[in-house]
Amino acid sequence: MSGPATVAVVDNHEAVQRGIAAVVEELPAEFSLVGCYPDPEPLIVGAIAVPDIVILDLWLGRDDVHSLGAIEPLREAGTRVLLHTSEERPARLRAAVQAGVLGLALKSDGTDDFLATLRGVAAGEFACSSELAAALLEDGRQTPSLARREIDVLESLADGLTRDQVALRLGISGATVKTYLTRIREKYLALGRDVTNATSLILEARRDGYSSPPKS
What we know:
By secondary structure, the chain is of the alpha/beta class. 47% of the residues lie in helices and 13% in strands. The protein has a 6-stranded parallel β-sheet, with helices on both faces.
């Protein structure tokens, strides 16, 4: 891109917004800050001109509200998305990559690493802020790949439903629910992670980022 890349920051914490803004504004030859926002809606609906890059936090205010659903609309609007997050659960981060983020910067990785990632995204390259960030995306040895329907079963059980109620909610048979749970357990056992019942499956999936904690 010719000239400074335009940048918007989407994070619900004002301190984070100010910190990123300060870093970006120190490099006027490379980047031009267009604004900071607590959520991506103004950018998605076109109320604000879409910048070249959106720096997006994954969690925007509550543990059960994430910005994964905003990634594809932002991409379709013509921007590059850099995920800047403290989330380190592999499943959530991989879902963000599948949705189309072009870079991943962990908030724990520091300013220099963040800038290197931002520059990579500006150049149209996929970039990670550290070896840890890359490993969380690429190392599948400790995290099973769960299908969408398997996740639906776990989330329904986590909501307190019985297996029969899960079957009713999802429009499947009780036997199918049992089959899904068996498959999930086999995937975890194959990785050496001991799971003995549905409760332990839910806990393991939650640690990986497949299932959110119950809403308070």
